[in-house]
Structures are given as C-alpha cells and as structure tokens.
Sequence to fold (80 residues):
Amino acid sequence: MPSDAQLLYEYLGQKIAANPSGAPAAEVLADLQAYGEQLAKLRTMVSEAQHSIAQGDGQELDVAAMLTRLRQQPASGDQA
Fold:
C-alpha cells in the first residue's frame, strides 16, 4: 500500500495537471481534506475485510461496489 506521502504527491500532481493555471488554495485544501476522509474510510473497509478473511469469514472483494458505497457516503462535515 502506498504511503500517505506518495498518495499526497500523486493527488497534488493530478490537481495540477487538471488545472495548470492553479486553483484557489482553499479549494485545493477542501478537496484534499475530502480525499483524506475517503482514503481513511477505504483503509478502514480494507482492514475490516482483512480481519474477516483472517477469521475465515472472507468472501470475494467487490472493489467496484466498495468504491460506489464510499462515494455515496456524505463527507463527515455533511452528516447530521
């Protein structure tokens, strides 16, 4: 699994490539925060799946479904 620094580098590279003239710092930071929250949720899901497999409760991992669920979850600041 890539390190947080590697993921940050890749993320910033993608943001710069998508908008070479630059985006407002506040926008980039808000996007980065949302990205970090999604990454943390994904890591939790992977960890839970690994634990289930270790317990013998494993089943085939449906990555597409996992990503769909992750994208449909509201950001932590949007939750009631």
Notes: The two ends are 32 Å apart (CA to CA).
